[in-house]
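Record 1 of the preview.
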Amino acid sequence: MTESPVTTAGGMTVASAFAGMRRVAPVMFKAGCPDCRGRFELAASALRLAIGASSRTTFYSFTCPDCGVAVRKPAGERIVELLTGGGVRTLRLHSTV
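->
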């Protein structure tokens, strides 16, 4: 039994479409804990981003891998851009007023 290659609508095989791709390393973010002063790198999956209506309600959070404390830090526009571009899960907060 032989398998025929899967061909796309444009006549290209799936294998040829992905031939030049390389494995991509996961995005890592540098972070620090205000409690224990630990410095470390976290994968995107270890961070959460909450985007609110103002700068006071926009923040990112993580659990310190050194001491276990829950850390919450403000996130300006550039931080939001970097975190969302790096695949961090995002929660959009809605105003109740």
